[in-house]
Write a structure and sequence with these properties.
The protein is α+β, with helices and mostly antiparallel strands. 42% of the residues lie in helices and 23% in strands. A 5-stranded antiparallel beta sheet has the order 6-5-4-7-13. A 5-stranded antiparallel beta sheet has the order 8-12-9-10-11. Strands 1-2-3 form a 3-stranded antiparallel beta sheet.
Length: 354
């Protein structure tokens, strides 16, 4: 018997119902809804009236488990030779090219995987066991989710696969690992996931970064998560363009040996950290030899006799902190909410691979 403990908040409201209401209005499947959908698939398979129908439902249930827990694309799942690709001892699934990867399934779902693969029909069908028409599979996915009130836009294989990726991000799995888990290599694949559900992946990653940054000092907070969008190789140095999740463009410059040790590549997720001591402030954008320029409003200002500490709220809502000589910035007549531009050299931007 599956039991739910009902708890009340300080207003006397049922917190389980509140969670369900939030899930209903979400533009992706929350972890609670994913769990409900998983239980619904188990019940749907068990409700089959005839042996033939039970076999079909078992095959479809296995497809769901591979997509829901393994993050496989529908085409990857139905093209899988289940017995050859799934190691029921190690819980590992090998997904072949073109997006080859090894995916670890949770133990909680492996009892169903083992049960389904042990069916005589699975042995007889061999590599054809998961072969279905994609349109037929999608219709069944929508039908199973319908009793839960889940809209068809959230119940399809792609939405479930991406919701698994969001679930992993919420569990603080680094974005680079989530992208490897989902087999995302092309820029279009990465972009589709980042923009799914109104950019939910970006929101979760930014929230994780903000939580992590609470433990660091004020001058270490200049970290921006983004993707490498261009790499230019020179004889002695490498110029790397980073586009942050809020669409800021930053340029970082490395000695070529250091860059080769990093093994960075285009479309890789990185954290750009800006040295607060190398930032120059100006009242407006200037044409100069510095590659990086971002503008915003003075968020806070703490002046001492020699040094001043300035925090700037950028146009995307992020914060940039800098240390300035007090005598130099007095000329700018800084005050809170005053527009200001921050300029800094490419060598002031350090990259960390997540």
């Amino acid at each position: 018997m599956f039991r739910v403990n009902v708890r009340k908040d300080h207003y006397g409201r049922d917190t389980q119902n509140l969670s369900d209401q939030r899930s209903m209005h979400s533009n992706h499947l929350t972890r609670e809804k994913l769990e409900q959908l998983t239980l619904r698939w188990e019940a749907w398979e068990a409700e089959a009236k005839t042996p033939a129908r039970r076999i079909v439902r078992s095959r479809l249930h296995l497809l769901f488990l591979l997509i829901r827990y393994g993050g496989l694309r529908l085409g990857e799942a139905i093209g899988l030779d289940a017995h050859a690709a799934i190691d029921t001892v190690t819980c590992m699934v090998h997904v072949p090219d073109p997006n080859a990867r090894d995916v670890l399934l949770p133990i909680s779902c492996m009892k169903h995987v083992r049960r389904i693969l042990s069916l005589p029909e699975a042995e007889l069908a061999g590599s054809e066991f998961l072969r279905f028409d994609q349109g037929f599979v999608r219709k069944k996915f929508y039908a199973v989710a319908r009793p839960l009130g889940i809209d068809s836009s959230l119940a399809g294989p792609r939405a479930i696969r991406y919701s698994r990726g969001l679930e992993l991000l919420e569990l603080h799995v680094p974005l680079n690992l989530v992208q490897k888990f989902l087999g995302q290599q092309k820029p279009s694949q990465i972009s589709a996931f980042l923009e799914f559900a109104g950019g939910e992946a970006k929101r979760i990653v930014r929230a994780n970064v903000a939580t992590r940054n609470k433990a660091v000092t004020e001058t270490d907070r200049n970290s921006f998560l983004g993707i490498i969008t261009d790499i230019t190789m020179g004889m002695r140095a490498v110029s790397v363009e980073i586009t942050t999740f809020s669409d800021l463009k930053l340029i970082s410059l490395f000695p070529i040996k250091q860059f080769m040790r990093m093994e960075a590549r285009e479309n890789q997720v990185v954290t750009a950290i800006i040295d607060p001591d190398q930032i120059t402030l100006a009242a407006e954008k200037l044409t100069c030899s510095l590659n990086n320029c971002v503008c915003g409003l003075v968020q806070s200002l703490h002046q001492e006799k020699v040094e001043s500490f300035v925090c700037i709220e950028l146009s995307d809502g992020t914060t940039l902190c800098t240390v300035q000589e007090t005598t130099a910035i007095e000329k700018l007549k800084l005050r809170e909410q005053k527009p200001i531009c921050a300029l800094f050299p490419s060598r002031a931007v350090r990259l960390c691979l997540d």
